[in-house]
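Helix-turn-helix domain-containing protein
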Amino acid sequence: MTPTPLRTPPLPAAEVRALSRALSAGDVTVFVDGTALRLPAAARDAVLDLLARLGRGEGVVVASDDGAEPAASRPAAQPSGAPSGPTTPGARSGSNIPLLTTSQAAAAAGISHTYLRNLTDAGIIPVEYRGTHRRIRLSDVEAWLQAQQAARPARTQDSGAQVEE
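Structure:
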């Protein structure tokens, strides 16, 4: 069974202009759930091609290429109930939850902001970007702290067992 292709209609004129300006800058970074991701060359080229087409005001269809038949011979089915536009990676529901700067999040966690940035770069603490600025949910910092506290007794027990031997 071939998955139904995703149809994205042409973007509104204002979005076309904004996307076109962004692509002309030449600096393209992909964020997945707020984390910067370096795409392999083939994937990067495919994404840039898709964005360039949207930037020219074209509608696009994204479908898997399973090698069974050319894409042109597949039926162009319109998914029912599909969103009218692309979804934004990293967009989360509950956007009214306050986001912390890296300095605020580091202070809340009791760690340096450099260590916090390393944790966000590694994907250990989720991060969202507002332009080039990192924003972190307090709940994500608290979850990381709880995981650290839960791991601490296990490490203490392990080191205690070595001392007793």
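Strands lie at 6-8, 30-32, 35-37, 60-62, 99-100, 128-130, 133-137.
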